[in-house]
Amino acid sequence: MPEQNDKEIRRRSIWYGTVTFGLVSIPVGLFPGQRSQRIRMRMLAPDGTPLVRQYYCPREDRQIEPEEIIRGYEIEKGKFVTVTEDELEALAPEKSREIDLRRFVPVEQIGLKFLDRPYFLVPMSQSRKPYRLLTETMEKSKKAGIATFVMRSREYLVAILAENGILIAETLRFADELRSPEITGEVSSKNISGTRIKAMVKEISNAAADDLDMDELKDTYTEHLTELVEQKRSAGQDLVESPEEERQFREAGKVIDLMQVMKRSMEKESGKRKGSGSDEDEESLESLSKSELYNKAKELQISGRSSMNRQELIEAVRNG
Amino acid sequence: MSARAIWKGEISFGGVSVPVRFYSAVEDRKIHFRLLHEPDRTPVEQRMVDPRNGKPVPGEQIRRGVETDTGEIVMLSEEELEGVVPEASREIEITRFMRQGKISYQWYDRPYYLGPDGGNENYMALAWALEKERKEGVARWTMRKKRYVGALNGENGRLKLITLRYAGEVIDAGAIPRPEGREFEPMELQMAGQLVDALTGDFEPAAYRDEYQHRVRELINTKALGNVYRFEKPKRRRPETASLADTLEQSLAGIRKQKSA
Questions:
Q1: Mean pLDDT of B214-237
Q2: Which of A111, A145, A151 is nearest to A30 (CA)?
């Protein structure tokens, strides 16, 4: 059932809400368009036991609890202005579920240096038609929508781009987060000889190619590290058992799930779907992995989430 | 107003070599707080603690390791970790030049400005040639013990290099099927096109700012002066919904009215 997939979009997306275009509103879910593949290095005791990070007061030389900690901004050496969580919360932008497209710009005007993080916008069942109309119109006119929106209590500047019938949301850096190119110093455009430029153009055309080569984009460091780890693991060398609570945040399989949700959501508006929805799709929080639950908790800004076990996360997300 | 370079390297391809200095194009404008121990505001330290006895482990005894999918931890020695670190080099190897716009936006990660290091002429010639030919180079280099891939561009006579995400880090938009449905009526497409046109302007990044960061800075400045900050919540409006053609029509009418007013 379409509504069922909408539920899944709400549950699995990082953010869900409405893209408004004039008076047209398009309910969508936001999914990551990238994932880090960096290997997380663990800090271990000499015998391999994973260590945990704890706060210490160097003056009293003792471990302190989060309740004893306050945030401070250093205005001059050793002098702090303190700020409470409540104050910061009061300053946070109001939770909103809207991306209001009130400005469109030619895509080529958006400088590449503004691009921060890519996300996909996936339409909910009732919004495929306006979604397609907006996408088609933007693609045809080579325009991107610019808006600000609130996600996880933070305000983002975002460019909505249409590519192959899909809407991509690229969060953008704010203008004051980018330096001026002039920080590199003077460059004089005078006195470059035409022949030098011509020679350069020729060298460039000698190395011309049509497209990216994925082999060139390989993360060779991660590959080598993975090989080393795998080699030692299969040889049983320097191996310790990982404690159960430590086996969290494993991302494997998550992307495939995500693809399923997106695919189902993009399927034809009529036919096919009827009767194919089984009750197994009706997933509850219990069926989510710990890392999925953790991400939910993060979105809901549940404090203390990193020290919660699976059941506690379920409870917190349900009540959150 | 020139800043300090973070690294020096040499762009090379074919018979060309261009020595450059790296500058980060991104400036962290976020307000970072220190964590303080409340009674006397001593800055807090983080220590790695052995969960079995609650005692901190001194830095020189800490070892590193990687958790495997099979739920084990493989411990790695300093020598082993050092062994996989890429070899240091000044070379910024350009492997290919493509038409600008061939790389999908999803790949772009972090921008750096490049300035000439020494001789200016090859730098200028490369920047102009790239801009004029609308080409973008794919670069590979090792900076501070890390391997990078990036896209080299020319703009206003200057070079910039934007790091690209690694293969496998970008989720392929092409793998998502495009949503399908009946063809649109010419009328619907026309109205949507008009609405986009009516809302079209220039990209003006300076018109937006991170209001939250701005308010936090105001709060700190106010408190630093010993004054009391007044909190107010910004309000946001809620839109209504109706049928597609009607709303397009209404949207257009609304914009026409605004423009003539």
A1: 84
A2: A151
Residues B134 and B24 in one domain: yes
Contacts of A199 in chain B (CB under 8 A): 125
Predicted pLDDT of residue A252: 43
DSSP string, A110-179: S-GGGEEEEEEEEE-GGGHHHHHHHHHHHHHHTEEEEEEEEETTEEEEEEEEEETTEEEEEEE--GGGB-
pLDDT at A274: 39
Collect all residues of chain B within an 8 Å Cβ-Cβ radius of residue A83: 33, 216, 219-220, 223
Q: ipTM surpassing 0.85, yes or no?
A: yes
Domain holding B133, by residue range, is: 7-28+86-169
Beta bridge mates, A56 = A63, B45
Q: What is the pTM of this model?
A: 0.84
Residues 6+ away with beta carbon under 8 Å from A251? A35, A291
pLDDT digits (tens, 9 = 90+) for A169-204: 999 999 999 999 999 888 876 678 888 899 999 999
CA distance B203 to A147: 11
- Give the chain B residue nearest A229 (alpha carbons): B74
Q: Which residues of A touch B175 (CB under 8 A)?
A: 259
Looking at the fold, whether B196 and B137 belong to one and the same domain comes out as: no
- In this structure, what CATH number is given to the domain that contains residue B109? 2.40.290.10
Asked whether residue B143 is assigned to any structural domain, the reply reads: yes
pLDDT at position A262 is 73
Could you read off the pLDDT of B235-255 as tens digits, one per residue? 554 444 456 777 788 888 887
Round to whole Å and give the CA distance between A39 and A44: 15
**Chain A: residue nearest B82 by CA?**
A225
What pLDDT, on a 0 to 100 scale, did the predictor assign at position A273?
A: 40
> If you classify domain A6-35+92-177 with CATH, what class do you get?
mainly beta
Stretch 70-89 of chain A: residues touching chain B, C-beta under 8 Å = 70-75, 80-83, 87-88
Structural domain total, chain B: 2
Q: What is the pLDDT of residue B174?
A: 81
Cβ contact, residue pair A177, B233, below 8 Å:
no
User: Under 8 Å CB-to-CB from A135, ≥6 apart: which residues?
Assistant: A162, A165, A166, A167
Q: Which sequence spans correspond to the domains of chain A?
A: 6-35+92-177, 276-319
